């Protein structure tokens, strides 16, 4: 069973959550913001930090002028370590999976002493600004696109909890994490959050293509001298676009993993389906796997856990029903809505086309059985879809602020890293890491 402190905090948490949800339900429509919000006033947030003081640099980018859609990029310091020559040579062959080992001791020592930094990147006043896309000194890292939880109505890409979790994933997996600040309900109901997820995936593909244009136009090898002098490219629609230097220099979008927690897992699964349907239209982005952490699924026919654990910790079923009412348009509200039930008939594409899917569930989470059922259906059509179930764990046990420092949260992140590395490995060998 969960500890006494977890039980007590859960009572307090549910009291506040219920109060906030009821207030939002009672908010008149005219007070809604058409531009959308991605962070609530009560949310504790942490500012972006472009230095590597704790091993990961972060940067916030607003990527849509029409809405509040934004992302936070998490770049691990290991991205500045030169790749092994053999791995670099192999990368040109576009193999399905790659591997990159930990930094060599000599390289790690030089990095810690600040040796060779001038030739690798542009550091100004301790802040990392990036370098030219063609620079071969740094590493090309896989991309993890992350979607936070919060029951559609709360949470943020820059919240303290999400910042800590994404830093942990960036370090353990050695990846560039792109945390998505999607629009929240009820200001923006379904399908706003889903559309935002797909829009970020398309933005990532556009960034990769702009970086390639930059190289082909002779921008390779030249450092970005100032933050405001990044190379601008005119895309096929005639609009000026700016190359994001961190992604251009370090991201390998052909190895993209989608990761979501709670309702964020629901968004990740939707984006994965759209990526399958888009196919080569998303080139060079390729979704190679997804991780669904305690996915926020429901259905009209209750599962055993939905009956037995209806009054579970933190996010009980009654509270989540309020969240669904705030997210789904009133005229479309149904527990078997395609956005709510992953196994509703007619959902496309066919499950056999879905990417490998790791599902994380908690013993004391009322949503666990439906997540497991979805995973079972994926396995029936030969999709690699293991389930990791954590004993005595509650919903959001690895991403909630008060539980992030628990041993279970750390172990869960490590388990995710082990599985993810199977699909981002460069040597075509799942145990090459």
TrEMBL record:
Q: Which domain of life is it from?
A: Eukaryota
Disordered, as annotated region: 26-51, 85-111
Which SUPFAM superfamilies does the record associate with it?
A: alpha/beta-Hydrolases
**Entry's Pfam families?**
Abhydrolase_3
> What GO molecular functions are on record for this protein?
hydrolase activity
The segment(s) forming the Alpha/beta hydrolase fold-3 domain are: 144-398
Which family does the UniProt entry place this protein in?
Answer: Belongs to the 'GDXG' lipolytic enzyme family.
Q: What is this protein called?
A: Alpha/beta hydrolase fold-3 domain-containing protein
Q: Which organism is it from?
A: Psophocarpus tetragonolobus
């Amino acid at each position: 069973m969960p500890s006494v402190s977890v039980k007590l905090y859960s009572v307090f948490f549910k009291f506040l959550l219920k109060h906030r949800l009821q207030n939002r339900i009672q908010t008149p429509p005219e007070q809604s913001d058409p531009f959308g919000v991605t962070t609530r006033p009560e949310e504790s947030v942490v500012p972006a930090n472009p230095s590597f003081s704790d091993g990961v640099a972060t940067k916030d980018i607003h990527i849509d002028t029409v809405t509040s859609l934004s992302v936070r990029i998490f770049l691990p310091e290991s991205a500045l370590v030169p790749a092994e020559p053999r791995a670099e040579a192999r990368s040109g062959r576009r193999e399905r999976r790659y591997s990159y080992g930990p930094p060599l001791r000599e390289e790690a020592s030089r990095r810690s002493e600040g040796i060779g930094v001038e030739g690798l990147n542009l550091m100004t006043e301790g802040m990392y600004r990036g370098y030219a896309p063609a620079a071969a000194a740094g590493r090309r890292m896989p991309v993890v696109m992350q979607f936070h939880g919060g029951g559609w109505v709360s949470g943020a890409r820059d919240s303290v909890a999400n910042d800590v979790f994404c830093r942990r994933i960036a370090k353990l997996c050695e990846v560039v994490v792109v945390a998505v600040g999607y629009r929240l309900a009820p200001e923006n109901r379904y399908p706003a959050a889903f559309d935002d997820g797909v829009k970020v995936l398309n933005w990532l593909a556009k960034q990769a293509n702009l970086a390639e244009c930059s190289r082909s136009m002779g921008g390779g090898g030249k450092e970005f001298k100032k933050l405001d002098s990044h190379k601008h490219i005119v895309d096929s629609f005639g609009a000026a676009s700016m190359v994001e230097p961190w992604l251009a220099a370090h991201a390998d979008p052909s190895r993209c993993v989608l990761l979501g927690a709670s309702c964020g897992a629901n968004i990740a699964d939707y984006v994965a389906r759209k990526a399958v349907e888009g196919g080569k239209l998303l080139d060079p982005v390729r979704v190679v796997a997804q991780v669904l952490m305690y996915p926020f699924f429901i259905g009209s026919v209750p599962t055993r856990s939905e009956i037995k654990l209806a009054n579970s910790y933190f996010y009980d079923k009654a509270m989540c029903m309020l969240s669904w009412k705030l997210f789904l348009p009133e005229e479309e509200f149904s527990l078997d809505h395609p956005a709510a039930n992953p196994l509703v008939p007619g959902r496309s594409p066919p499950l056999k086309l879905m990417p490998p899917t790791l599902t994380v569930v908690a013993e004391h989470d009322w949503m666990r059985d439906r997540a497991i059922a979805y995973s079972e259906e994926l396995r029936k059509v030969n999709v690699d879809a293991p389930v990791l179930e954590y004993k005595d764990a509650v919903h959001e046990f690895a991403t909630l602020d008060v539980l992030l420092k628990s041993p279970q949260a750390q172990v869960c992140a490590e388990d995710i890293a082990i599985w993810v590395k199977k699909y981002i490995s460069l040597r075509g060998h799942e145990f090459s890491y």
